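Why run this: before we spend reagent on co-expression, it is cheaper to look at a predicted model of the complex and decide which construct boundaries make sense. The entries below are exactly what would go into the expression plan.
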Amino acid sequence: MLSPQISIIDLDFLSFPGVIAVYLIELPHATVLVETGPASTIPQLTAQLADHGLKPTDISDVFITHIHLDHAGAVGWLAQKGATIHVHPNGAPHLVNPEKLLQSAKRIYGEQMDFLWGTFLPVPAAQIHSTQHQEVIRIDGAEFQVFDTPGHADHHNCILYDGILFSGDIGGIRIGQSRHIELPTPPPEFNPVKWHSSIALIKSIRPAILAPTHFGTYNDVPFHLANLDKNLSELEDWLSRVMREQLPLSDFTHSLKDWLDKKGRNHCDPALQPYFEILNPSWMSAAGLYRYWNKTHQI
Ligand SMILES: [Zn+2]
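The model came back. Tokens follow.
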């Protein structure tokens, strides 16, 4: 528990603890979630809400940082239970009509799709609140401020509440209180220029605590953001070096995995090491980097 009001719900994704978080904020007359996790972990979410004496119908508001299925897969189900969904305007249409979102996820995950992510339900338009950059949303007297933070996806928000910045994926992946911070760079919207700007914006907000969805809370915010920025620059340097070799995607993917292992994963607690490849599969980040490079370096 972060404070009497705020708790971390660990969804135990694929029976791995400490990889996907939902944040629960209990106000006197409202109950707020930041993120929902995938639809496949609805039973875990329901059980942990029950541990807090809550039913799914008690959730009044849900903020999602973005619509990727590990962050927002249960959003339609929570809407069915009555929650209002606060989402970036670029993400909102995909919640109402998720066909395109699900098709592109299916292209990536194939037969694994249902097992990994479960069934994504659409959200009725009337239950969606499309956020504005820097908008302050008041719920039961509490203030939540939303920041447009592209770079990982063009529909990514960070949410600030009581000095805690829920940083989704733009704040990187950091697990088990290790010092290794990794950047998930999936297709199609990874953009390092936008990502650097979003890090600068987060620095200017000066949150006391960062709470990435993957996973937990960190109060060494200046260290975290400086390293995130440095890792992004090093990733860009690596990308421009490797792309000169004109490798096919499969070889490029192997190179990325080797580089990520050497850069940080191999220096973490051995028990944590497999988690990085679950949270940030090198084939997915490689596809995003490869696509970004080819899009921006067409002659
Ligand atoms: Zn994501």
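The first strand starts at residue 6 and ends at 10. The domain at 6-296 is CATH 3.60.15.10 (Metallo-beta-lactamase; Chain A). Bring this page to Monday's planning discussion.
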